[in-house]
Structures are given as C-alpha cells and as structure tokens.
Automatic annotation (TrEMBL):
This is Sodium:dicarboxylate symporter. One of its GO terms (biological process) is dicarboxylic acid transport. It is a multi-pass membrane protein. It comes from the Bacteria. Keywords: Cell membrane, Membrane, Transmembrane, Transmembrane helix, Transport. The chain crosses the membrane at residues 45-67, 79-100, 145-164, 184-205, 217-239, 290-315, 335-357. Its main location: membrane. It is found in: Cell membrane. Pfam families: SDF (PF00375).
Amino acid sequence: MVKKIKKYSTTNTLVLLGIVLGVLFGVFAPQLALGQQIIGEIFISFLKMLVVPLVFSSIYVSIVGLGDLKSLRDIGARVIALYILTTALAVFAAVMAMNLVPLGEVVAVEGLEYAKASELASFSFKSMILSFIPTNIFHSLSEGSMMPIIVFASLFGVASLHVAKQKELEMVNFFTGVMDAMLIIAQWVIKLTPIGVFSLISYVVANQGVDVIIGLWKYLLMVLAVLFFHAVVTLPALLFFFSRINPFKYLSAIREAPIMAFSTASSMATLPVSMRVVEEVGGVDKKNASFVLPLGATISMDGTAAYLTIATLYISHLSGVDLTLFEQLLLGVSVVALSVGVAALPSASLVMLIVILKQFGLPLEYIALIIAVDRILDMARTALNVTSDLVVAKIVDECLKRKNI
C-alpha cells in the first residue's frame, strides 16, 4: 500500500507540473498550444476507449455479487439518496452565496443569440424517461450512451441471478476478467497523464485567452468559491459524519482522480482512473466501487448543479429580474431533479440551463455573456462531480463494512 501511495504521489506531482507548464505554454506560445491539441485528444480517446466495457462489466459484476434483489434495492436506494443529498447541499451553498454577495448589474443585450440553444429539442420528462431505456443495446454500446448501458447491465445482472449457478459463475468470471483487464489498461494510461494534462490545459488557455476571464472575474470567482467550499467543507463533513474517518487524509490520497477530471472535463473519461485510485489508495472495496462510481459518473452532478444555480441567478440579475425566496427554492428543487434526470441526454448542462431559464421566464440570450468562460468552469465543476463520487463511494464502503447499510 505504501508503494502504491508513493507511486500516485509522484504522478500527482508530475500532473501539477503539467498544469503549471501548460498554463505558461498557452499564455506565451498560443499558436503552438493550439496546434498540439491532438495530443490531448489522443489521451482522452484512450480513456474513453475503456469506459463502455468497464462500466458494463463493473455494474454487472457488482450486482451479481450482491446476491439478491433485496441487497440491490437497499444499497441502490441509499447510494442514490446520498447523491441527491450532496447535490442538494451544493445547490443550497450556491443560493446562499448569491444572496449574500449578489452579482450582476442590469445589462441590455441586443442581437445576441446562442446558436446551440435553437438546435436543441424541447425538453420533456417523457423523452428523459425513454432515453433511459435502450431500444438497441448494441447501438447504445457503440454510441457510449451511459444510462441505457447501466439500465441494461443492471437488468442483465439481475437476470443472471436466476440462471443455473454454473452458468452464472461462468459469466461472472468472464466479466470480472474484462473489468480487471480494463483497469490494467487504465494503469498504463495513467502514466501518460502529465503529458495529456499539459496538452489539454495549454490548449484551453490559448483558446480562451485571458481577456475574457478578466472581464467576468467576479462571476468566475463566485462559481469557483462555491465549488471550493463544497469540496473542502460540505463533502468532508458528510464523509466524517457517516464514516468517522479523517476526510482530508482520504481526499489527499485520491486527489489524482479530481486532477484528471479537471484536465479532461469529463467524468466518464475519468472513470477508469477513479476506479483504480479509489481501490488502490482509497481503500474502497472493488465490488462497492464498481457499483457506486459508474452510477455516480452518470447521475452525480454536484458541481454542475451549483454552477447552474449561480448562472441562473446571475442571469436574473443581469436581466433585472429578482427571484423571490420561494422562486429560489423552486429553482433549487428544479436543479436537483434535472441534475439526476438529464444526465442521459446530450449537452446535458446546456439542456438544463435552457430549461431553467425558460421556466423562470429569463432570456436565453444572456447565455452568450457567460459561455465564454464555460470551458474553464466545466473543468472545475467536473472535478467536483468526481470528488463527490469518490466521497459517496467511501461512505458506502465504510457503512457496508460496519454493516450499517
């Protein structure tokens, strides 16, 4: 264990160095930074390559490992409840922050239009529910549609509990081998992390520029402050309350995964790294991590929920619309509900923001004012999403070990 911790500590140091050098490279050599984007894209592609077989096999193995439907129902309900709790607390922190330090003076916006908004189909709960169910599992696997894959893998795992024991054992051995092989490949990819991070960060800095960041520094700082508060206060408090362990020691041990999430801005691309790190240095049982983390990468969106709450209130201030306390409460409920449900849809964050703005009668045109720094904030909120997943995984693991779940 000490050797593994030392290995990840070395990787973390190299990754942080990659971030620093990437920022400097993006600032002082922007043309070169833009030209080397392919290196970062190759790195992300390697990670995404692992996601579908890893999610399918890990969900299947973990469900069959539970042994019966009662255990699946009990643990599944508690995991989802924990994810909803962390998301709700993130939204609450965002609402409180925006009321204590309101941002945004009234700005007139004419002629601005966010093109992607008009391309998206209208949201409905019917389409959301239907998007969970795969009409063709092979299509879902090829497209990497996570919610349909998770639903099918869960049903497949439950069905396997009802076949002959010998056949069940053969399938479990096969998918366990698949999962282990994917995690070994993930270990190889982890060695490329410093190079991949350097490429991704330098491209973002060169592409976004610093002028845009300076112009929206108050808004940017507010979002980052709320995300930071949730990461270092709320989540550690929950981890200590439920598991009675030192939360900061655990978060320090698994920091490789949030750093990776910040660099890639993708919870799914980070999933192979999250699963390996949380097992090797976080002390979480593989069976528990295999169930909790793939589900969390799909439905847990603490950072996204906090960001959307701040963005909505910021746009309301810019457009001169003051939301009442009741409307802010309704906003919080809407964000929590949508963060769980809309994750299966493409452009999830954009869909959620458009739905919320329409719900409160706020102009979509104001999205154009904040979209410039969205990539940077996307990296930060994804890091928080992954941190929340890792905290919930540890809570569930500790509670199971103590037989409290």
